[in-house]
Design brief:
Layout lengths: L1 E3 L9 E2 L10 H7 L16 E4 L5 E2 L11 E2 L2 H15 L4 E3 L6 E5 L3 H11 L8 E3 L3 H6 L11 H7 L4 E6 L6 H4 L4 E5 L4 H10 L3 E2 L14 H8 L5 E4 L10 E4 L6 E4 L5 H4 L9 E2 L7 H5 L16 E7 L16 H14 L5 E5 L15 E3 L5 E3 L8 E5 L6 H17 L4 E5 L7 H11 L2 E5 L6
Parallel strand pairs: 1-3, 3-12, 6-12, 8-10, 9-13, 14-15, 16-21, 16-22, 17-20, 17-21
Antiparallel strand pairs: 2-5, 4-5, 6-7, 7-11, 8-11, 9-10, 13-14, 18-19
Length: 459
Amino acid sequence: MTHSSPSAPSTTTNTLTPATNCTLPAAAAVAAGNGSTAAAPTATAFKTVLETIDPATITYTSTDLDDPVPEISQPHTRHVLDQAAHILRAGQVVGMPTETVYGLASNALDSIAAQRIFKAKNRPQDNPLIVHVSSLKMLRSILKDNIIPDVYDDLIRTYWPGPLTLLFPRSSLIPNEITCGQATVAVRFPSHPITRALISACDRPLAAPSANSSGKPSPTLASHVMDDLAGKIPMVIDGGQCSFGIESTVVDGLRVPPAILRPGGITFEQIRQVKGMEKVQVYKKHFTDAAMEQAPTTPGMKYRHYSPEAEVVLVEYIKTEDSPVSNGSGPTGQYGRILKEIEKLKQEGKKRFGILRTSFTTTTPSAAAAAAVITHPNGTTHLQDDREDENVIEFPLGQGSKPEDVARELFRGLRYLDDQKVDCIFVEGISEDDEGLAVMNRVRKAASRTISLESTEFL
């Protein structure tokens, strides 16, 4: 594995053009052979290259989305993008940062390249991929009759580029491997500068699910991608921690009324404020569709996802008319029940436990108490109390009243606690308002068990 840091900033600014003559890393060259259309992918071992890009070295000075051109301020950034683009154009795959989670990208118009995504991730063959574009011009080029449906005009104007995926009628350009035979294709215009610039460098749309082994928590750091896929893919681009931390919201505006098929970075509350989306429904909350679940039109609908090796247990309040759920329930509620559950599991022989906390109170310790401050991997701290046990590891996700913070840390916390070899991970649930809907969607899919509390049980 090789790691390269960004070179010193250049005083010149360049616009990025599609890669044409950069050198393919040796492992990728072997795998690509004479072109990706020659044969179905076979097992290949890679010496995965890890390259770092500072997202700040890529800028967009125009707000025009029809055909925006990135400006590159470092030769190193250009070199890495060109290298990655060449790998992708040769039919291989690359791990890349996005604003949601890290993605595993391939040429979305190449069926063999798409198969390499499924193989590297061990992804079920009936789980569709999302296509990523870098311009509205590119979007039109892959749609039926090159037309963007009018129903999406205001959503695109408001939330693209960003963590929002839209369903479109599929054209003949999109391989079956991308849509898993569905009549629609899911497309997103990402906001992360590295993602946008890489798509532009390829001059092709990129298919990109999360860059993890299927079923595992999604990666929000390049190190997570390396943990899962090193040796299975040629290259990973490190662009730092993902800003949203959960996958994009998926909207089907072709349906009447429109539907959110997967909650994500753009909330239900935000979407229903957009013209034409006032009656939008949320799948599994406002309606269900057994046929859709068996033949999903978008990722995240059918299979269990986001699960670490340890058992995950969700501890949440049930919402009643007299006792609505509140974020950040405090140590006497969810936390107290978790501690009781841990004592019970110890009697069953389990020894090590993790807790994803959403009820920490922020406090500044006095100098005398400084020695009792616990510092967590994400930089947050809390004051140690007498109940703390070295075999109970706590990871603070943030205040439950700030679900956007919880979303950013959720997958990172699951992976961290799994790395600590805990037997069981408890998650303090939060309200499903705003980003909380997406957070709880992911936690429910990860959890094998749920403990429901009445809000007065421990008060």
